[in-house]
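Handout, page 2. Input:
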Amino acid sequence: MFVGTGSDVGKSVIAAGFCRIFLQDGYHPAPFKAQNMSLNSYATPEGLEIGRAQAVQAEAAGIPCHTDMNPILLKPQSDHTSQVVLNGKPVGNQSAGSYFRQEGRDVLRQEVHQAFDRLASTYNPIVMEGAGSVSEINLRKIDLVNMPMAMYAKADVILVADIDRGGVFASVYGSIMLMTEEERKHVKGIIINKFRGDIELFKEGVKIIEDLCHIPVLGVVPYFTDIHIEEEDSVSLGLKTKSAGECNNVKMIECKKVNVAVVLLRHMSNFTDFDALEQDPRVHLYYASSPVDIQDADIVILPGSKSTIDDLYHLRRNGMAEAIVKAHRRGTTILGICGGYQMMGQSVEDPDGLEGDITQMPGLGLLAVHTTITKEKTTRQVTFEFDGQKCQGYEIHQGISDTDEAIVQTDHCIGTYIHGILDNAPFVDFLLRPYVDQVKNADPFDYHAFKEQQYDKLADYIRRYVDVPAVYRILETKNV
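Output:
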């Protein structure tokens, strides 16, 4: 199990790397995270919902994803409430106070234990991941995902620390010292992640940590920007490009790329829909939060949303709705995915108030569809044909639109419920076709091959900086 000194220290990426390492070395690994909190989710082959990070890790492990890899998914709906998805199906909305209470915890604990047991009966090793900080001692009695889960699984635990944020000695030492004596017995190693500079200069730091904690430092992993693994948390959006007009520090007129603006919504979900476009050498993708941001866009994308009506309301308030309609009139291509597709229609209705107090909102009027928000959630993988070629994606949405078409097109407007549609080269080539004459490098981009290459690069990178043979020696000694 990889646990962290805090959130966003790199646990998910390290876990994905080890999934690929174990696969390369002839094992049959699978990922597991008992409880995940994210708006970035994915549909399994059975049409059930899990966190996107575990789907990525399963891909790195070379296996189909399954709900047993992430039995509990919390999808935030506001600062205080989340939709609870148990074994792939929504079981209701709960406030933080209601969910994080001791009553009823044994039922959830039994569910995650059973999911782990089923997974462990088929795969070996299980690459487990903790959540947030491993030492939230106020939550120890109700914790389902960190050390209590590690002890149930008799897992070897490796603590991951982010040195880039500072305070690495305090965070490592404090995390370990706040564990119980029994918990500390499971911690077999430490990885220092996101190091910048000359690693040789940190040798003394490694010795200090080992002397303080009496636990070996298995590796110091340098910060990297040239390996691209889909991110788990939307915190990564803060590092994304926010403007058009430049690419690699030169003017767009010189580098000739297609300007693609993704509208930055308050409740944006499934932001990894755009990872393929971001890596496409023909595209300059950026995130737009104001009307001026989309003035130079060739293509504007309205992404998925966990609260479609509320996001549509704020687009109207901040002028983005009007700017998108004006962009369409001057010839800009508008693409809506899931909630964004619903916004592009004539209206969105929520008669049962599932999303909030607003029960009806006019859409942007770009597509001749009307949407009703429903209690039932659609979650499924889909195969569809586009431009004569077979494509794949997945749907996760609450709402029904009055058309059976998988993709609705009219006058440089496209709407669809299909997440992952931009992972398909035939669709992307169609989307970019009106603009590729201005692009110097107009060769099609194979995102699936690209991702496989990135998993292998990540595995090689970890092997270079982490003592993988020591990890195997640790795994050979059973915990009891």
